[in-house]
Every structure is written in C-alpha cells, then in structure tokens.
Fold this protein.
Amino acid sequence: MQMITFWDLITSPNIKKICIPTIQRDYALGRRDRAFNRQNFLTALKSAICTNEELPLDFVYGVDNETMFIPLDGQQRLTTLWLLHWYISYKAGVLSNSDIKEPLLKFSYETRISSSDFCKSLCELAPNVENKSLRDWITQQTWFFHQYRQDPTIMGMINMIAGTDLMDKDNDIIDGLAEIFIDDKCDYKSMWNRLTTTKCIKFNKLQVSLNDSDELYVKMNARGKQLTDFENFKTELVQYVKKQNFLNDEETLLFATKLDVDWTDIFWNNKWEDKKTNDVSIDEIYFTFINRFVRMEYIKKYGEKKQDNKVDYLKQITTPFTSFKPYEVSLDKKSILDFIKIMDNLRGATIDTESSWKENFAFIPCYQNNKKNEITKITNTQTLVAYGFMQYLLYGEYDENSFSEWKRVLWNICENRDNNNKSNFKPTISEIDLLSPYSHNIIDFLSQDKEIEFEQNKKQLLEEQRKARHLKDYPMIRDMEGYLFFKGAIRFLYTGEDGGEDWKSFVAKSINIKDLVPKEARHTISLFIDYLSEQALCDIYFKWVSNRDEYLRGILLYDNVQPYLHNFLLKNVEKKYTLTRLHVDIKDLCETAFGGLGYLRTNWNDSKYVWTNYERGSKYHGWCSYVVGNESYMKISKIIDTSDSFEVRDNQKNRRIGDHIQATYLHFKYEGHFFTLFGNNTICLYAENWEGKMPNPNDKKGFYFTVQNIETEQNLIEQIRIMLSTYDDQNTTI
C-alpha cells in the first residue's frame, strides 16, 4: 500500500484532470458553522509543513476514468489540499510558473460550472491585495460574478482561504489559510519545497473499479450536505484500528473500503431520500446498526453498570456522536474481526425477523416517516434477538433453512427469559454465545442428550431441547409456538400428570386447547376451576386469576399446575372435582370482579377465604375484596341485603356482583342501631355511623354473636335483640 501526496496526484502524467463529480456534496468544510473544524485541520497541516512530523490523511477513494481521476470519498480533504497548495504557491511567488499553475488547473468541480470557473480564475491571476483582505480582493475581481455568492462551494473556499469574522467569546476564531499562515512567521518558499518534495502530508489513494460508477457515487455520498456523525466516527474507528494494530496495513485498507463501499449495500434499500433535492442518506441507520453491535460488546465485558461506578459509557454509545472513548472501551481486536465477519456475511442476506407469533422488527434500521432524525427502535427482547442474528452471521454464511430454525429457537429463549429484570441483557447474551457456534445446525445440537450450562433461562432451554428431539414426529410444535400468547413456550402441551414428558397426549392437547383457550371470548379460568381441588385453588390463584393473556400464560407455565392442566387439556371429565362453595364463588367472581383480575387470599382480614385485587395496589384492603367460600356469610349477608328489616350502609348498597357484596364486612342498621357482619361469621355492635365498636367491659372484642347456626331472618333478628338486651343490661348496671 503506497502513500502519496496531493502534489504526486496532480503531477501524475497519467492524470489529466481531477474532477469532483456532480453527485458530490458541496465543500462542507468551508461552511461558517465548521470554523473550529477548519481551525483544527489547518493547524495540523501547518504543523506537518513546518516540522519534521508527517500527517497521514487516511484513504481517498476514486475511479480512474481513462485520464481522469474522479474522487468518490475524500473530496473535503482534496479540496482543502488544493487550496493549501494554491495559497502557499501564491505566497511563495511561484503560482505563475507554468509547471505549478498547470497541475493546479487539473483540479475542477462538476458540482456547478461556477465552482469550476472559480478554481480556474484563482490560478490565472495571483492576488495583489495591498491593503485589502483576500476575501475583499477575490470578491471585487471582475471575474467574480454576483451569482458566485449563491454557490456554497465557492463561498466555502473563500472562508477556507480568508477565514471568517466568527468569535469565540471575545476572541476571533483563526479559521482561514491567511490567518493560520501569517507572513511574519512563515517561510513560504521552504513550505512550498517541503509540500512538493516530501511526504509531510500524505494519503492512500484507492482505485475502485466499477461497472456502474454513478450508483456508487450516490452510495458513497449518501450523507447529506454536512459532515455527519458517521463520517466522523468512521474516521476515528479506522484510526483506532490502525493505531491498535488490530489489522495490518493491507487489512486496514480493506476494512476501510468495506466500511465505506461494500457494506453500504446492506442499508441502501432503507435509505432516506428527499425527492425535491435528490439528497439521500444511509448514515443514520448504518451508525445505529453499528451502535447496537458495540452496545452488546460493552455489555459482554462490563454488564450494564457504569464502568468503575463512575462513567456510564453504555449511554454514550449512540447518536449524536460526541466521543470515541466509549468505543475504545468496548472494542478489541476480536470485536473488530467479529464485526467484519458479520458484515461480510450479512451483505446479500435476506434476514426475515418474524417470530412464530408474528412479532417483527427492523433488524436493518429504517427511517420512520422518511425523517432523518427518526430511526426505528427495538425492544429489549428484539435487541437480544438482533444480537443472536449477528452471532449466526459470525459463524457462517446465511442459509435460509438453518437460519429459520435458529431464529425460532432464538426468539423462544429471548422472549421467555427467567430473570425478573427484563433489561438485564448479560445473562441471555452469555447463553446466546453458548449456542451460537451451533447456530447453523441448532436442532441437531439441541437434540443431543447433553447438559448445557444456562445461567438463568434454564426452563426454556430444557423445553427447546425436548422439542428438538420430537420436531420430526410432531411438526405441530411450530404452529403451537405461534398460537395466541404462547410465544414459544408450550411445555404444558407435552407435560403429563406426573410432571414428566408425555408426548402421546401432545396432539390431543394441541387440538383441545384451541377450544379451551379460543382466540375470542375466552372463559378459560371458569372452566379450569372444575379441575382444581380447594388446595389447588389456594395455591394457583394466590398468583393469578384472569382470562387476560399474560395471566393465563402464567398459569399455563406454572409448575404446580401441570397435573391439573393435563386433565383439563385432555377434557378428562372423570378428573373434575365436586364443586364446593369456594369453587362456585370464584367462578361467579373471576369473570367480572375487578375487571376480571383477582387473587385468592387465605386467613386474610378475619376471613378464611377472600377474593381481592390487592396485588393491583389498592390501599384499602377491606373494600377491594369479597368474602368467598363461606356458606354462613353468604346466607346472612343475603338476608340482610334483601330484607326490609335491615338497612345496608349507603356506600355498600350497590357494591355487589350477584349475591356477593364488595368488602370483607357488611355494615348495616337495625332499629336505629349500627352493626357489622364480618367474614369470620360474627355480627358486632357498633357506635353511631360505625365509628367504633361499642365497648364491652366483659369482653375486649365488644358485643357480638356468631351466625353459623342462623337459618332465617327471624332467627337473626332474635339474636340481634338478645345482644342489644345484653348491651342495655351492661349499661344499666353501670
């Protein structure tokens, strides 16, 4: 790989012209808002010319079209170098020499005719500024037409030559050749000699052979009019790779070429374009894709915590690009080599991301609503799946059949992570890394009777191993993974009554479950209750009771429920339980109370069984509940609620579902006295408006009686009167 100078390029006998093509952007480095960029670049150029140091400028890509060199990338640098050579030759007094002027005249712009004419005019007549600034001298020449002021490239060149009047606080920003290379500090002839006879400023010229060069012009320059985050990032990435000796010089050149040319094909179909201006861009989505890769590399090394508990580099791996430090922390030689393999194998591959349950995402990022600043986002689970896709490409070329199986297994594991913190990527990344070497033959690998050391997602891995061994015999597995909310977790379909594998029942369960868990109007919970003992009700419904997808899914995957599910899914009526009062109450309430979401609590608020929405965050437990499984309470509460002899508290009158009154108690009045029926089957005498129990000097619990043996309204009234008589006696005695 040979390094050349700009003077080598324009004096080459094989090159008659260097032409910036029409498709290229304007001279962005000359824009007023790039003052600091100009200052930094010109300072570096001056240092290279005036010292013994050398300044490498990386790569310049182009097409040798017969005797013409057409730059595809590096236009900004080449234009700046041309202006540098023009300025130094003018200041050294040699611009008029034909052997200098003629090579400089080879450089031209096709962006606009005006830009090309401007460059030619600068070479034809050396400035004679006297007391004028270079800007004034140029803009006052007869050949400087008024329309030149509308040409951003020309005005950018003038800014680079003369500098601007922009200020940094109270200080002028030194951002032009005339400001950096001032007379009293510069020996221009020595500068010119060093500029043209040494390689103090050099770059790699890469010739690209193209069948359709116009298409590549577009692809190479699909970056808008300004230097983008990606352009800046790319430069630092290549420099970092080179500095760390991750690749040799030839490999580094190839890497840079692929980064700029070959891999752009991957993103081209998702490009942003402005039909009015014909501008196109892929930088934003390209950079997003790289950032996703880098984030995973960071997490593999450090997890998701701040490095040293101080710097959160993970949050800095994103757009806009501000610092390369997070990338240095994340990327090592292996990362770079892995990335190259992934991108090489991704080129030309058709990645179908859709899961068996029809979830999809943009593995190759897209512009939303054709807006450059809106890039498609992906969820935590999708991020892990995307990482798994990258790992597949790391271990081999894309193959539709092997990728399809890997995709299925990958989705299943990522969707059904066991860890509570779904944003905790590292355990699942580690598990994907264990499987990835076998990603191109994943079913055969999982079919082996081999233990795989998963840290967290053990249940789903075991399921994938078991399904892999039976895929040929039961192709319905794939269909059932995608049914409704199952999302790849279907172990309840092959789990027997003893908790072990039972594949003989798999087909029957798969057919029946479409009736038991239909797509519409599901009543699964009320049907399933018939197959549960009271103890099972307490165990299972302590966790979930709802026909909502997420709760049904939890029940279906709950280990303790599998023996009951087995008979339920087989519709084995012989295994139904005789329904108790608890069964009936829950069946009455589970479809309607609290929006269909409830939990069964035992020995709660003085009741043996309570149906509640407590887990939804209600602060007043008494009101968010129903007494269930209590025959006596239901009988007495119904008598009180329906009899004209009693008056139910206003705020409880309409709080009922069927025979069930909401709350773990019932406030009521009788003949002006206040009472409460509790879930422990007692009725207690209260003070006015239920502001507290009436005190009983003989019993800390107050005045009360039990209702278990009460059968009629008259029996209830008799007991209430007896309690009132006892209360009156106590008060009379006092």
Confidence is low (pLDDT under 50) at residues 222-226. DSSP finds 32 helices and 20 strands in the chain. Residues 91 and 188 are 6 Å apart (CA to CA).
